[in-house]
Design goal:
single chain; alpha/beta; six-stranded mixed beta sheet; 12 helices; about 50% helix
Length: about 280
């Protein structure tokens, strides 16, 4: 498992994203202008790829040099995956004696992702993974883009038996945690304040029980920017939502050029370091 974690970390742009200035992260993103950006999302039956399986993969290939009003779409991929015998057995066992995983049973997850829609074709998991890899390889210099990319990369890698192509991966969640939220907090705390930053930051605030935090969840961030979340948890719809969200987030970050976010960014990095120590 440690080797898998290191393999995925090596593919993610995590180390390159970490601790840069606003100008530095924009330069990093602009440096991939000649890559084909492939935004992708997976739906699964659980949180552990060793006991769960993929149920859907959605992806959109984009020319990053031609965002404009609408992204320049180069290709689209969307495949549903039929449940394997192990998953069906798990569903049967949970029906007899429900045992939720992180509060969600397999049935809950399937319902949330609208699995089983009529008129849809459901294919073998390995066949869909092979087709997904073929889709990625059909474009020059792919850069994979995903929200909470480590989860999707781990699932795809494990379920494919380690056959995932080794391409750079951008995690939109890391971008928001490391730059968007620190930027907004810095702008709000500035002597002159920033009402627009405060309004957006307020929309990102989520309360859980007795505590709250500023969320980098795709649903929360998209809603904050006025992007529709009606089809959230449908792989292809999530991909299109992620694309809109990414563009809006980068525009906000770009407007913050010249702002020193190092103080707020340092707090984020310290929390991430603590989490990694607890997991190791």
């Amino acid at each position: 498992m440690n080797l898998l974690r290191e393999y995925i970390r090596e593919m993610l742009l995590e180390s390159k994203l970490s601790g840069r200035t606003i100008e530095g992260v924009l330069d990093l993103l602009d440096g991939y202008a000649n890559n084909t950006w492939i935004f992708f999302d997976t739906e699964t039956t659980g949180f552990d790829p060793n006991s769960g399986q993929l149920t859907e993969i959605g992806a959109v290939a984009v020319d990053p040099k031609a965002w404009g009003a609408d992204a320049s779409i180069l290709g689209q991929f969307n495949k549903k995956i039929r449940l394997d015998p192990d998953t069906l057995k798990t569903i049967s066992q949970q029906s007899a004696s429900p045992e939720d995983v992180k509060g969600k049973s397999v049935q809950d997850l399937l319902s949330m992702t609208r699995y089983g829609e009529s008129g849809k074709k459901y294919d073998d998991e390995q066949a869909v993974l092979d087709q997904f890899f073929e889709f990625i390889n059909s474009f020059p210099n792919p850069l994979l883009v995903a929200q909470n990319a480590a989860f999707d990369m781990k699932f795809v890698n494990v379920r494919s038996g380690g056959n995932i192509p080794k391409y750079p991966v951008l995690d939109t969640q890391q971008l928001m945690q490391g730059y968007l939220i620190p930027l907004l907090k810095t702008q709000v705390k500035a002597e002159e304040g920033d009402p627009q930053a405060q309004a957006l930051l307020d929309k990102l605030y989520v309360i859980k029980g007795n505590w709250g935090y500023h969320s980098a969840s795709m649903g929360v961030v998209s809603k904050a920017y006025g992007i529709s979340i009606d089809d959230w948890h449908n792989a292809l719809a999530d991909v299109k939502m992620m694309m809109e969200m990414y563009r809006a987030v980068v525009e906000t970050i770009r407007r913050g050029m010249g702002t020193d976010i190092s103080k707020e960014q340092g707090k984020v990095l310290a929390r991430q370091k603590k989490r990694r120590k607890r997991k190791s």
